[in-house]
Amino acid sequence: MRRVVVTGLGFITSIGNSRGEVLASLRELRHGCVRGGMVPGVELPVRVAAPVRGFDVASPNANAWTWPADYSLDRTLVRSLPPHGVYAACALAQALAESGLTPEELRDGETGIFCASVGSPMLLRHHLNRMAEAGWLRGHPLGVVSSVAGTLNFNLAAHNGIRGATCGFASACTSGSHALGAAFDEIALGRQRRMLVVAAEDLNAESLMPFHAMNALSLNADPATASRPFDRARDGFVGTGGAAALVLEDEESARARGARPQAAMLGWGQAGDGHHVAQPHPEGAGLRAAMEKALASSGIGRARIDYVNAHATSTPAGDRAEALALRAVFTAHGAHPAVSSTKALTGHGLSLAGAMEAAFCVLALREGFIAGQAHLRDPDPDCAGLNFPRTTLATPPHLVLNNSSGFGGANVCHIFSRHD
């Protein structure tokens, strides 16, 4: 098995659009939630979201989109992108710059790309409505590739000339985590020299409001308390969009080209609840199994984990299930790693979440800190025994675990280590 390291990160998020901005927000526990309507002129019960700043991709017309002047995006590429594809292209540009990879290396056949995206419901609705109005015989020639699940993979693989492994992942809130785990396997098993992992999500009424029908969104109108994982008073998640990108490489290849590893990925695990299409197992059975498998595959004893970045989205059932799983894996065995869910700051990025939070874990390892559990005032009794730091700790972690859970009882866990 080849050793896998992370050599580049990219962020377009509600808490910052660069490594430095995100790092400052995590250390200072500065959230990105704001109060505002999802649909101009329409009063909705969901009052808080966590938007990305500096971009305007609200229109279904790509010609109207704008992004920061720091990025030079080809308008030909943009025409086939979903709104979140603009975020993804910018996050990937950051990660590639950090890693020092050249365009020629991306096209060498030993570099692959795995992406996580459920597509763009807003753009898909727009294109289908236009086709229906035209009698179904006329439509946008790029309507399919710009809106369906897999759109990120189609666009970013073609635009970057990727000739290695390419695949898109759409497993709801574990999409980014599945992409990252599969990318790890490609390198560890010697199939690829390096892998690009990119996850992104729209934030608009079409992508968010269907979750209101499931009673999954917070109705709290206060941006400072709407997203409060593990708190007794939590009432649902706050939606966010954005993108995250990671460059994974075989350690020997990275060193040979002079790249500087930021962390090592040791292994991962996944397991299903086998319980319900939209609700977690009440005791977090699948997540518990995923964590156990990740520890076993990494060869790490549970007592050595310093920090857990929890999936906890601030929903009553989800947070409870994860708390019970964490207690079974750690507390019951006398282990007490620091636990926090950075969704208190970012909101829940759905298919983006797992990859974004994995990148946060790499930052924590590289920069030597543990983000505290923001907005936690009164912990749920089911969290008894868990170690929630209320402020950011300056203690450098050596081993961290990253959890994700999704529809159908999918659960994924990654383990990263500090790279000296």
Could you please describe the fold and organization of this structure?
The protein has 420 residues and is of the alpha/beta class. The protein folds into two domains: 4-256, Peroxisomal Thiolase, Chain A, domain 1; 266-418, Peroxisomal Thiolase, Chain A, domain 1 (3-Layer(aba) Sandwich). It contains 13 helices and twelve strands. It has helices spanning 19-28, 75-78, 83-99, 103-106, 121-133, 151-159, 175-188, 205-208, 251-256, 285-298, 316-329, 343-346, 353-367; strands at residues 4-12, 34-35, 48-49, 111-116, 166-169, 194-201, 242-250, 263-272, 307-309, 338-340, 399-406, 410-418. It has a ten-stranded mixed β-sheet, with helices on both faces. It has a two-stranded antiparallel sheet with strand order 2-3. Helix 7 (175-188) packs across helix 13 (353-367) and helix 10 (285-298) crosses helix 11 (316-329). The protein is globular. The two termini are 20 Å apart. The relative contact order is 0.18.
List the quaternary state of the chains. Answer: single chain
Whole-number radius of gyration? 20 Å
State the total count of DSSP E strands: 12
Q: Biggest sheet: strands side by side, in what order?
A: 5-4-6-7-1-8-12-11-9-10
Highest CATH level, the class of the largest domain: Alpha Beta
> What average pLDDT do the residues reach?
97
| Name given to the CATH homologous superfamily of the largest domain | Thiolase/Chalcone synthase
Alpha carbon gap, first and last residue: 20 Å
What are the low-pLDDT stretches, counting only 5+ consecutive residues below 50?
none
Per CATH, which architecture of the largest domain? Answer: 3-Layer(aba) Sandwich
The total count of helices amounts to: 13
> What's the order of the H and E elements?
EHEEHHHEHHEHEHEHEHEHEHHEE
Strand content: 15-25%
Helical content class: 25-40%
Instruction: Write down the CATH topology of the largest domain.
Output: Peroxisomal Thiolase, Chain A, domain 1
The biggest sheet amounts to: 10 strands, mixed
Q: How many individual domains? A: 2
Query: What structural category arises from helix and sheet content?
Result: alpha/beta
